[in-house]
Amino acid sequence: GTIEKAxxxxxxxxxxxxxxxxxxxxxxLLTRTVEVDVFNGEGYSPLLPPxxxxxxxxxxxxxxxxxxxxxxxxxxxxxxxxxGLPLAVExxxxxxxxIGFDVQEEKVNLVNEGHNYIGDVVxxxxxxxxxxxxxxxxxxxxxxxxxxxxxxCVPTPLDSHQEPDISYVKASTEAISKYLTKGTMAVSYTHxxxxx
Length: 196
Description:
By secondary structure, the protein is of the alpha/beta class. It contains 6 helices and 8 strands, in the order E-E-E-H-H-E-H-E-H-H-E-E-H-E. Helix 3 (84-93) links the parallel strand 4 and strand 5 (97-101). The model is unreliable at 1-8 and 36-51 (pLDDT under 50).
């Protein structure tokens, strides 16, 4: 439900599915799980106890874990280089439909044709996964809306000052942020080449 009104110790929750309203005290919200969404559609009420927010996070986590267990999750991998492509292949081999995202059309075409260009990937595995529809690649980041989990696997090379250049991470994050949906988990696999 949605919190319609919040008083000093009373929250009025509207349940849209059956058009009923219920009132809860602050203590009610602390001592049991009450399914509530945002306050007035603008974000959490400053009066909303942290336990309600935690309950929402717990529910999202449980839903994600259930989808993982049932192999219903769709995985996205941004960056199809020496970290991203092997990760995408392994996730697809584990039974998760996987979409690889890359800005380089040549890499995307090679993946979609089942042609490997990374030493850590077995050629026949890649070909089989593509043929079975478990793995595909695209330059179109709007497909991020279709994934439940996305891993950013782009390089962080050292710049002229021997500092990590995070421009690829930033660009990837900005590209996927336009299409992320509620409940999608995103992680960044950063990797550095250290000077010797």
